[in-house]
Amino acid sequence: MIGALDKPTEGKVVIDGTDVSSLNSGQLSELRRRIGFVFQFFNLIPRYTASKNVEMPLIVAGVKRKERAKRSQGLLESVGLGDRMNHKAAELSGGERQRVAIARALSNNPSYLLMDEPTGNTDSKTTEEIMDIIRRLNRENAVTTIIVTHDRNVASQTKRTLEMLDGKIVRG
Question: Fewer CB within 10 A of the end CB, N or C, for the chain?
């Protein structure tokens, strides 16, 4: 719902003062361009390089090749993968794949970053590295970051925590 991928059957989802259910498909597409998605299972294309995976949203947005390459390189460097940008996604570790997914989510300079269990498939060291990256990117880019997690350690590292039970906010 927060990512505007579904419309609510009850209640409202309001983003920047706009009720998502009132938007037509074109307006929903425009809204989604302002949201960077990081999925739990990366959703990278295994045969593409890290760089090409980061460039995919830029291709869809019609960004020229030279600018895509420049932006991809900068983003991969910002998540500590400048030296792995030409490796295929299938050749990367789980933590590296998640960092590529974060870089890809940031490629179109989103206003919001929506992350579903961004550390769900990582060990404790990689979890800390990813949380450090998320905090730094939030601070430097002023991107509103929403993390959905079951990991209380991850939740404890955020500025604000809302706890849900059976679809309702019970704490926060």
Answer: C
Mark out the alpha helices in 35-167 (DSSP H runs).
50-60, 65-78, 94-106, 124-141, 152-155
Amino acid at 138: N
What class does CATH assign to 33-171? Answer: alpha beta
User: Between the CA atoms of 168, 171, 119 and 104, what dihedral angle is there, to the nearest 10 degrees?
Assistant: 70
For each of the chain's 172 residues, which pLDDT tens digit applies? 888 888 778 888 888 888 888 888 888 888 888 889 998 778 899 999 999 999 999 998 899 999 999 999 999 998 889 999 999 999 999 889 989 999 999 998 898 899 998 888 778 888 888 888 888 888 888 888 999 998 888 999 888 999 888 888 898 8
**Domain-wise residue ranges, the chain:** 33-171
Question: What are the percentages of helix, strand and coil residues in the chain, rounded to 5?
Answer: 45, 15, 40
